[in-house]
Structure formats: structure tokens, C-alpha cells
């Protein structure tokens, strides 16, 4: 109340002339935690310590400064921890639990299950393949949409100025041999699709006189005779089902026979053989007829578009039965013969020149993960369709796989080795008069 009896001019003058030197040590101790300027307090503390004539005030001031320093640092650390743990998006918030802890936990569980699965495969003497749940997750990825996008991009016309740079980088990255191309000028190819499906010089490929030759350039993943069981090896130790791969038996008069005996044309003195050839992105993307034969009908299986590289083929059992494929089934002079083009990731389309109705990589909406789909379209080919050995059959828009399954006399022998690189027209095998003759019966 005494303030009301003091003249306002005198009160204002005293407030204006107030200086920090009039503060006591006790006021300084109380005032410090509420100070807004560390610099002004530091300057005041320095002047105070210089003007003080007792060591007690210096010790008190030093304790005050040390207490403030550690207190401010502690509160700063606690504030950061509070923001990191409890604030929006923090590790202990609901958002952090859902977006951070949950994915981390799922990764740990997946790694543990993968480790246990590998241990189980080692105990049973089986190859290390991906468990079913990992295959399901892989099939759930939008690989078909990605492949359709890549196919659309590959068909876009590239400006002539950038063609040598883009196609040159691709050739360097994947080891494309441009000297074999009919047209080596990179400016001639209007799009990536034109460059992928380029033709090569006839003198660069020689068709061997043997009964079966390579239909494409690529690497042999597996080859050999088909045993009494219907499971074939896609790579060493990893199998796929022949019945699922080619579909149900198309002959009504062999219902009671086994699948292998049911599809054979000649019942005595013959066996089934198979050969898998993988086309890398840098290989020649067109494929030819491996022998002289007559395709009777085609089955188009609507499957997934997983990668068919050797690394993936070692992890995913039944990979060729999961993927989209076009199987051409017919006969040659020694019995049953089939030629199957398997689709893969980023394969924009599989084009077969004798079958204009074949349309692969169709839009299926947002439906993904339908790896067990067994639906297929069957189309009968014209009676006048006949393929000669070495004749051009079709082309891939990216690397993929060719699977041959055919019937031949038991004297047939493959002339291949494990992981051998083959070219179009190169011999895959032929008949031997002596069973002890050179040649490999199966991949060892």
C-alpha cells in the first residue's frame, strides 16, 4: 500500500536508475534460475567476483554457476529424451510402436525363422530353400504391375541423341556383344524393346547336325532324364512338378497310366528328358526351334512373374510352376515333344510368331499373390504349322527361361556340362550306339 503514497515521478526515476550493482548475493542466488540471458548473468557474475573482497562470495558464486550448468544440461537431455521417446513419432508413442518397434520385431522374427529353417534343411540333408511363407510374401509383391510398367517404358521411343549413351551403358553393364548384331549402329534402335529383340548375323550361329540343338543363347541350369517320379530338378536339389508345369494329361485313353507314361507317344524303348536354359538380360533374346517338330496345341498358364535367375531358382521350389508360361506341346520323330517359354520379372511380353493369339502379362487389376493359380487357356494350332530345326520361333522382351521336355530313345545322351553357356544351334545331345560312349546322362 505504501506504493500509492509515493509520487509516480520518483518511482519511475528510481526504477530507471536501478543498477545490478545494488543487488545482494542472496538476490543473485534467487534471481539466477529465472534469468533469460546467460550472457548477461555471466557478465554480472564476473563483475561481482571482481568487486567482491571475500573468498566466501567467490565460492558461493562458483557453486551457483556449476549448479546452473549441470541443471540446464540435465534438463536439456531430459527434454530431448522426452521428445525422442514420448513425443509424436517417438519410440514409446503409439506411432513409434506401430512404425518402428513392430517392423523391427517382424525383422527379428523373420531372421530367426530363416535361421531355424536353414538348420532344419541341414539336418534333413535338403538344399537351403525359402520356406512357404517367404514365397507367399514374394508372390504378394506387385511384380506384374512393375513388369507392365517396364514393358511400357521399354516401348517408348528414345531421342536419337541419347540412344548411343543409353544403349551403350546397357551393353557395358550386361556384356552385350554388339559385333554380332545385324545393325551395330545404336542410333538405329528406336526403343529399348527394339534393342532387346535385335537380330544377329546368320554366320554368327551355326546349326549343329545333331538331333537336339540349343534354342537360345543362355546358361544351362539343369538337364537329364526324367525319372519315374514327376518331380524334376530346376537346379541342383530343387525340384518342380512336371504335371503342374505342363497341366493335366490331355489324352483320354491313358487315365489309369502314370503321368509320364500317359504323355509319351511311344511306350517301349523311350524315356523322357528335360533341359532348362536361362537367358540373361545381355543375351540374344530371340529363340529358335531346337529340332524339327510339329506343335499341336498351346497352353498358356496365368501365373506370377517372379525372377528366374539362378539365385532365385535355388531358393524357390517349383518356380517354373508358379510363373506365367506358354507351353507348346506336340511331337517329333521320336515321340512327345514340348517347348515352354517361361515369363519372368520385367518381361514385358513373350511373343511367339506362330501364335498371334498369345497375349502374356495381361492386366489383372490389383490381384497379387495368386501363386497357386492353375487356370490356363488352351488353343489348338493350325494343322499346317511345322517348325524346322533352327527356325525362328519368338522372342522375349527381357531375359527369361526356355524349358524343353521331350521323349527320346534310351540311347540319347546330353553333350553338356554343369552351368555351361550355350549358343543358338549348339548341340545339346544326340543318340549313342554304345551306352559307354561319351556324353552325360544327367547333371552330376
How would the blueprint of this fold be written?
Layout: H1 8-16, H2 25-31, H3 38-51, H4 55-85, H5 94-124, H6 132-139, H7 143-154, H8 163-174, H9 192-196, E1 212-213, E2 218-225, E3 231-235, E4 238-241, H10 242-246, H11 259-263, E5 270-278, E6 286-288, E7 294-301, H12 310-315, H13 319-322, E8 325-332, E9 335-342, E10 350-352, E11 376-380, E12 392-396, E13 401-409, E14 412-414, E15 421-422, E16 427-431
Antiparallel strand pairs: 1-16, 2-5, 2-15, 3-4, 5-13, 6-12, 7-8, 7-11, 8-9, 9-13, 10-12, 14-16
Brief overview:
The protein is of the alpha+beta class and 444 residues long. Helix content is 34%, strand content 20%. Residues 120-444 are mitochondrial intermembrane.
Question: How would you characterize this protein structure?
Answer:
- This protein has 444 residues and is an alpha+beta fold.
- The strands form 4 sheets. Strands 11-7-8-9-13-5-2-15 form an 8-stranded antiparallel sheet, with no helix packed on it. Strands 1-16-14 form a 3-stranded antiparallel sheet, with no helix packed on it.
- The termini are far apart.
- The protein is globular and about 90 Å long.
- It has 13 helices and 16 strands.
